[in-house]
Amino acid sequence: MKYLLACGLILSSLVAARQDKVALTTDPIYLDYAASARINNDSLKEFVRVSRLDGNSSGFNFHAKKLKEIENKSAKVIAEKIGCNADQILFTNSATMSNNIAVLGVAYKYPGCHLITSKIEHKSVLNIFKYLENSSIQSFNSEIGTRQDVAEIAKIIKNSGNKNILFHSDISQAFGKYPTDFSVFDMATFSGYKIGSPKGIAALYVKDRKKITPIFFGSGDEFFPGSKPTALIAAFAKAVEVYKLDEKIIKENFETLKTEVEKIKDVFINSEKPSHVFSVSIKGVLLKDLIDRVQKFSFSSGCSCLGQGESNVKEAIDPNGKLPSTTLRISFSDNVSKKNLIDFAKNLKIEVEKLRKEKSVSDSCEKSEEKQKDLLKSLSNLDLKNLQNS
C-alpha cells in the first residue's frame, strides 16, 4: 500500500508539473491584429519561393530582369485591386516611410505651401508636421477604430475649385478590410502586414508623381532608391489577392465584446462603430498592472508606434482629461472566436475588480499610517508641553 501510495504521489506530482509546464509555455491568445495580422500561408509560401531566386532587380542581367518582372507583376496585381495603374504604386518598407515620402515630398516640392492634418493622426504623420513647424487624414484610426469620411473630405476639396490642393490619407487599417475608393485620393498609404504579408513591406499610391519630390537619394527608384525586397513585394501582392475580411463576423465579435466589457463598472467605450478595433478606458487601475495580470491574452494600449508618450488620440477626444488614463485596444480578425473574446472580458473583469480592491486596501493602509503618524506627533507635542509645565 505504501508503495502504491508513493507511486500515486509521484504520478500526481508529475502530472501537476506537466500542467504547470503547459500553462507556462502556451502563448497568450492574440488580440492585437491592428498592430499586425497573422501571416497568411499563401503569402509566406510566395515569400519563401521568391527569396530562393538569385539576383538583384537593380541590375541588368538575366536574374535581375526576372526579379524585376516579379515586381512589375506584383504592382499590377495591387493596382488592379485598388483601381489604378501599376506605375502609381511605390513600394516602401513601412507605412511610416510612405507617410514621410508623401508629406515631405509635397512640402519640398512646394516650399511655403499650407499643410493641414487632424489631431488623431498616426505619430509618423504628426512628427513630420512638428518637423515642418507648421494634407494628411487617416481613413481609419488605429487606436479607437474611428472611420473618417474621406469621400466627403474629397468632395469638399473638389467643390472648392482649387486644383492645387492635394489629399493624402493613411489607409493602413482600412485597406483590404473596408471598401475604399482610391480615386478620391492624390496619395494613399497602405501596408502588407496588416493583411497577412510578412512585415517590412508597404506602399504609397501616388496619382501623379510629378507633384511630389524625392526625399531620398541613391541609385534605382527615384523615390525609394536601393535594392528592392522582391520577395516581400511578391508576398504583399499574394496577400492582396487572397485576403478577405468577413465584416459580418467582425460586427458580431465587436458587439459581443462590447456587451461583456460593459459588465465591468466604470468603463468607457471609445469606439463608436463596430470594427476590428475596440477601445475601452477603465477607471481605478493602471495599464501596466492589467497587462501583467491578464496574461492569457495579448492586447495593447493603442498604436504600436506610440512609444512611451501619451496618446495624441486620447488627448484629441478627451481634451479636458475626463476619461481614465488607462485605455486598452483589443483588435481582432474574423478568425477570433466569440468564446475567446468572452473569456477575455471575463478575465479582464476579474483582474480589474481585484486591482481596485487591492488599491482600496492600500489606500486604507496609507490613511491608517498617516493617522498613526499624526497621533505620534500629537503625543510628542503633548509630552513637550507637559515637560514645560512641570
Brief summary of the model shown:
With 390 residues, the chain is of the alpha/beta class. It has helices spanning 2-25, 41-51, 62-82, 95-109, 123-132, 150-160, 230-242, 247-261, 287-293, 312-317, 338-389, and strands spanning 29-30, 89-92, 136-138, 168-170, 187-191, 202-206, 267-269, 277-282, 297-298, 327-331. The protein folds into two domains: 25-38 and 244-384, Aspartate Aminotransferase, domain 1; 41-242, Aspartate Aminotransferase, domain 2 (3-Layer(aba) Sandwich).
Q: What distance lies between the first and last C-alpha atoms, to the nearest angstrom?
A: 79 Å
Beta percentage is 5-15%
User: How is the main sheet built?
Assistant: 5 strands, mixed
Assembly annotation: single chain
Overall form:
globular
Secondary-structure element order, N to C: HEHHEHHEHEEEHHEEHEHEH
- CATH homologous superfamily placement of the largest domain: Type I PLP-dependent aspartate aminotransferase-like (Major domain)
At CATH level 3, the topology of the largest domain is: Aspartate Aminotransferase, domain 2
Task: Provide the number of structural domains.
Answer: 2
CATH class of the largest domain: Alpha Beta
Number of strands: 10
